[in-house]
């Protein structure tokens, strides 16, 4: 049951960590999360991957669909 001033996400993590074994490791991993690690380990690689992957896939599809084929004799 939720009580006290802080009932946000912390109570859920404590409850889940106590009752669901999978969340115990997650709570420990979240302890080291800060803005620097968020940007360097998550946001930057994902953004670069989306830019590069999207550009290659979209350009590849356009190249394949609109390529100039030699005329058939």
UniProtKB/TrEMBL annotation:
Transmembrane helix listed as a keyword: yes
Subcellular location: Membrane
Transmembrane portions of the chain: 43-65
Keywords: Membrane, Transmembrane, Transmembrane helix
Taxonomic superkingdom: Bacteria
Main location: membrane
A Pfam family the protein falls into: Form_Nir_trans
Membrane-related topology note: Multi-pass membrane protein
InterPro entries named among the record's database cross-references: Aquaporin-like, For/NO2_transpt
Gene3D superfamilies: Glycerol uptake facilitator protein
Name of this chain's protein: Formate/nitrite transporter
């Amino acid at each position: 049951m939720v009580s006290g001033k802080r009932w946000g996400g912390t109570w859920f993590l404590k409850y889940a960590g106590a009752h669901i074994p999978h969340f115990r490791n997650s709570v420990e991993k979240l302890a080291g999360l800060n803005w620097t690690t968020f940007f360097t380990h998550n946001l930057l690689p994902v953004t670069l991957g989306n830019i590069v992957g999207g550009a290659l896939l979209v350009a590849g599809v356009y190249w394949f669909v609109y390529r100039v084929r030699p005329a058939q004799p």
